[in-house]
């Protein structure tokens, strides 16, 4: 069996953690599997390098930033290789360009164009464990690029797709994907399986076990993922196209996102294109607007409200104020004291009444729903931040603890 | 003018040092020169990486060690690039493989096979300052290799040769090459020029401003070197084939090497091949033996003495004792309490009487010469370590301070 494994920065943070991961790799290798292992930079390496850069240049070019940051993963694979060598196992470490991970030229947020598998295959045929530096590739100029946040997951999925791996295991510091945040909801259950779409909705709702990009790529290439812990030996959660539980379980998980803010553009002139101009301002500022609501304003005007990521709220506000005359509105207000609670489940598609149960839970808890957004497999509600944990627990009880 | 500059690890050890070096590079660039700059890893980076490796594997493979260590220089060039960007200068950093420094497969001590200049030329044509990671290359397997001690100097010389550079400047933490160690001999003078051969002799005698390998390469390709300080703006010392002073100055420099030990193999059987067997044992152990003397032993036997690097003395002794029966000797003694004082000068070739002046200096100081070795441009004497500084000062006075 060909297995691609990925271990994040906290899993290789120091010598003891490296030895622990080496044990997991060795165990699988000695069972006779072909092993390709993607590693991130050790613990704080990336932050330390960014600090060094900031001392010299507040705004360095992304090309040189990628040149600098790519060294972190290279160090990880070399150190892991040495650890496996000490265990007497055949191993070889390869950087992004050695593997042939070719990307576009979008430094710091590069997209993988293709993965050459020749060298990987050659090393696997020699019965070697192959360690690959995650997060990095090279572009057509033979310059180093990095893949942005969650880049090592993307590397693992791309390699699994290119090699037609039998398994793609993403090791993290949690044991899998849960029905709700287990630190907050005592009855939260680890899911055995979850669909790509459910995972995408949960990830974008703040349950960031996997970055959306790697899940999207896994879905596109049909790579079945497994999310599991590098510290606790237990089965994790499988992420796949169709799950056995889709019919049985009406919903899969409940997530809370506190990194949200609501912008209200008050008294927008009621003429054609006003809403477009507001949302276009967001697009130009690179801000994602979500859950857009338009309500009647005082007279001949509308209030347009929407939700943005909290750390983009200031930028969003500025973009609107810059265009106040062009758009035509009275003022902008920002409410950061909100949370978005989302209920996700592919089972919703074939099951009616889910929304009713969710709304009933809010009602019973006397929680006021400020905004609602639904998709085929998700219901999101914006409520005040203080009630969020209570809301998640109440919904969780109704679906999972009866 | 195309200038190749090289800055060592202490010259780029922190943000302030990097800014200082960036100033030197910028100054030359703004004078209109084409700049190719080779950098070493920052200060203690290499040692820190070796420590991390040692935690995981006492004897890691050289391939993985090279993979690990190559990151140090890559970080240096990225950080320097950011600093030059902050000054508004066009710059690009390139690792060994990006430049196309192809080496043999001798990991950790690789030899440069060839340097591809296409990318370098292309970047220079774009009027960019090109920063190159020193000490590293790639072999025919596209694996990272490192060039061993003094590797960054070698990179600089190789690039200067390949690009037919007009100047090759090696910046260090000394101001140039001196007639003697200026910390020990107050009258020591900085040399304006020195020949390759003189430099080679001085370097191997412990005055390690430049590693022999880079000087040999410079001599072979006729690359004129300049050794100068990154902290003090002053002309340094030029290293070249023929110097103006060759005829005038009888000697160029006086060096002291305390990293030496004398081995005496006592009562070697006086039969053909005995000396060969002794020296062959050294060759097999990878120990360089120097200044070999054979003297009559007690009866029908000889005492064979020679000098080795002090840190190889134990290994040399073991190698002899392992072969005691085959060689046939009584015992081995090691004297670590010695120093080698060497007088170097291409002028010796055309001038007789140098040796006499040297010996007279020792005699006047009542220093006993234990061993003598001479070459066309060098006289080396082994004396007791305690007298070495006094000897150097006495010889220096006779040649330079009259």
Model description:
Two copies of one chain form a homodimer. Chain A is of the alpha/beta class and 402 residues long. Chain A has a domain at 2-173: Carbamate kinase, CATH 3.40.1160.10. Helices cover 36% and strands 27% of the residues of chain A. Chain A has 13 helices and 20 strands. In chain A, strands 3-6-2-1-9-11-12-10 form an eight-stranded mixed β-sheet, with helices on both faces. Chain A has a four-stranded antiparallel β-sheet with strand order 13-18-20-19. In chain A, strands 15-16-14-17 form a four-stranded antiparallel β-sheet. Chain A starts with a strand and ends with a helix. The relative contact order of chain A is 0.10. The model of chain A has no long low-confidence stretch (mean pLDDT 91).
Please render the helix and strand layout as text.
The structure is a homodimer of 402-residue chains.
Chain A: E1 2-7, H1 15-30, E2 34-39, H2 45-56, H3 62-86, E3 91-94, H4 96-99, E4 101-103, E5 112-115, H5 118-125, E6 129-133, E7 136-138, E8 144-146, H6 151-163, E9 167-172, E10 193-195, H7 196-204, H8 212-221, E11 225-229, E12 237-240, E13 253-257, E14 260-269, H9 274-284, E15 290-296, E16 301-309, H10 313-322, H11 324-327, E17 331-335, E18 338-344, H12 354-364, E19 371-375, E20 378-384, H13 388-400
Parallel strand pairs in A: 1-2, 1-9, 2-6, 3-6, 9-11, 10-12
Antiparallel strand pairs in A: 4-5, 7-8, 11-12, 13-18, 14-16, 14-17, 15-16, 18-20, 19-20
């Amino acid at each position: 069996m060909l297995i691609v494994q990925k271990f994040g920065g906290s899993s290789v943070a120091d010598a003891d953690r490296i030895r622990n991961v080496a044990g997991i790799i060795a165990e699988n290798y000695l069972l006779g599997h072909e092993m390709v292992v993607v590693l991130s930079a050790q613990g704080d390496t990336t932050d330390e390098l960014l600090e060094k850069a900031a001392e010299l240049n507040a705004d360095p070019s992304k090309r040189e930033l990628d040149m600098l940051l790519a060294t972190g993963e290279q160090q990880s694979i070399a150190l892991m290789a040495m650890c496996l060598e000490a265990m007497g196992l055949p191993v070889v470490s390869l950087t992004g360009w050695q593997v042939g991970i070719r990307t576009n030229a979008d430094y710091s947020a590069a997209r993988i164009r293709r993965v050459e598998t020749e060298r990987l295959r050659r090393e696997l045929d020699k019965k070697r464990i192959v360690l690959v530096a995650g997060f990095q590739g090279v572009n057509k100029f033979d310059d180093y690029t990095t893949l942005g946040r969650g880049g090592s997951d993307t590397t693992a999925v791309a390699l699994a797709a290119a090699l037609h791996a039998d398994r793609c295991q993403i090791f993290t510091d949690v044991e899998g994907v849960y029905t709700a945040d287990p630190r907050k909801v005592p009855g939260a259950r680890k899911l055995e399986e979850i669909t790509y779409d459910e995972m995408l909705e949960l990830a974008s709702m703040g349950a960031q076990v996997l970055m959306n990009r790697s899940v999207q790529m896994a879905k596109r290439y049909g790579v079945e993922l497994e999310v599991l812990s590098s510290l606790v030996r237990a089965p994790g959660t499988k992420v796949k196209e169709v799950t056995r539980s889709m019919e049985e379980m009406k919903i899969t998980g409940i997530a809370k996102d506190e990194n949200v803010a609501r912008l209200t553009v008050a008294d927008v002139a009621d003429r054609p294109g006003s809403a477009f101009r507001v949302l276009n301002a967001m697009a130009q500022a690179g801000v994602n607007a979500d859950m857009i609501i338009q309500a009647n304003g005082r007279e001949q005007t509308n209030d347009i409200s929407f939700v943005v990521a909290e750390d983009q709220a200031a930028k969003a506000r500025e973009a609107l104020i810059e265009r106040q005359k062009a758009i035509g509105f009275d003022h902008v207000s920002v409410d950061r004291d909100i949370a978005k609670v989302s209920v996700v489940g592919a089972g919703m598609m074939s099951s009616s009444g889910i929304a009713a149960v969710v709304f009933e839970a809010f009602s019973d808890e006397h929680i006021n729903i400020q905004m609602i957004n639904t998709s085929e497999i998700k219901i999101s509600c914006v409520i005040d931040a203080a009630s969020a944990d209570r809301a998640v627990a109440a919904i969780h009880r109704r679906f999972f603890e009866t």
